[in-house]
């Protein structure tokens, strides 16, 4: 079912309520089928229609160029696994994560993973090609190989006890570690050449 969030009317409860808008439109049902979203009772999925509108808007404005999209997310096959029946919605209040979007409305950051397959499809429909699809680990290691990492190695070669260089290496390792942000934060690089 399609739904949304709204503030309660005059009840004065100070919480968000979910509003069920009715059955899925044929268009939305077809998109969910295309993305192979499981049709399981109680299966939850977040669908960011604003991201789709944003992507379609870019396709109209730019006739050529490069587009880099970075965020937490994955391709549809991984995002919509049957085991992920609760979706990816996460809430954060004072750096503490929870899954209750109804608690403390307006005081929490709410986020959900991006369906990068959908962004790739929309781009291809507009003539944009995928140049690179990388997780953060691969993207940062590739970007750092020629400069940043070589410089750190050189500094540590001169002074193995260089505390600042050691700290920078630890920070880089944290950003690229698979258990941290290394695998869940993704980079989608798309390109469209101008038509002459």
Q: Pick out the low-confidence regions.
A: 1-16
CATH C-level class is Alpha Beta
Number of strands: 9
Gap between N and C termini: 45 Å
Provide the residue-averaged pLDDT: 82
Q: Please, how many helices?
A: 8
Count of domains: 1
Could you say what the CATH topology is called? Rossmann fold
Oligomeric state as shown: single chain
Based on the structure given, which CATH architecture is correct? 3-Layer(aba) Sandwich
Overall shape: it is: globular
Task: Return the structural class.
Answer: alpha+beta
β-sheet strand percentage: 15-25%
Give the spatial strand order of the biggest sheet.
Answer: 7-3-9-8
Task: Give a quick account of the main beta sheet: strands, pairing sense, barrel closure.
Answer: 4 strands, mixed
Fraction of residues in helices? 25-40%
The secondary-structure element order is EEHHEHEEEEHEHHHHE
Radius of gyration: 21 Å
Please give a structural write-up.
It is a single chain. The chain has one domain (2-134, 188-192): Rossmann fold. A hairpin with a 2-residue loop joins strand 4 (90-93) and strand 5 (96-98). The strands form 3 sheets. It has a 4-stranded mixed β-sheet with strand order 7-3-9-8. The N and C termini lie far apart (45 Å). Helix 2 (49-61) runs parallel beside helix 4. The radius of gyration is 21 Å and the shape is globular. It has 8 helices and 9 strands. With 196 residues, it is of the alpha+beta class.
List the main descriptive attributes of the protein structure presented here.
196 residues, alpha+beta, Rossmann fold, four-stranded mixed β-sheet, three-stranded antiparallel β-sheet, 8 helices, 9 strands, globular
């Amino acid at each position: 079912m399609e739904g949304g969030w709204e503030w309660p009317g005059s009840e004065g409860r100070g919480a968000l309520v979910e509003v069920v808008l009715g059955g899925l439109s044929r268009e939305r049902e077809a998109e969910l089928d295309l993305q192979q979203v499981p049709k399981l009772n109680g299966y939850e999925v977040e669908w960011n229609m604003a991201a789709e509108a944003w992507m379609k808007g870019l396709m109209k404005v730019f006739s050529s160029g490069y587009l880099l999209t970075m965020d937490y997310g994955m391709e549809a096959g991984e995002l919509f696994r049957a085991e992920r029946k609760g979706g990816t919605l996460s809430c954060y209040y004072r750096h503490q994560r929870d899954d209750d979007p109804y608690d403390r409305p307006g005081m929490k950051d709410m986020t959900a993973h991006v369906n990068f397959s959908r962004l790739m499809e929309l781009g291809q429909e507009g003539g944009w090609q995928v140049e690179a699809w990388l997780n953060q680990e691969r993207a940062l290691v590739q970007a750092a190989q020629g400069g940043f990492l070589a410089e750190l190695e050189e500094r540590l070669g001169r002074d193995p006890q260089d505390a600042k260089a050691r700290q920078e290496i630890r920070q880089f390792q944290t950003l690229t570690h698979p258990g941290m942000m290394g695998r869940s934060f993704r980079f989608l690089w798309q390109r469209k050449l101008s038509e002459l």
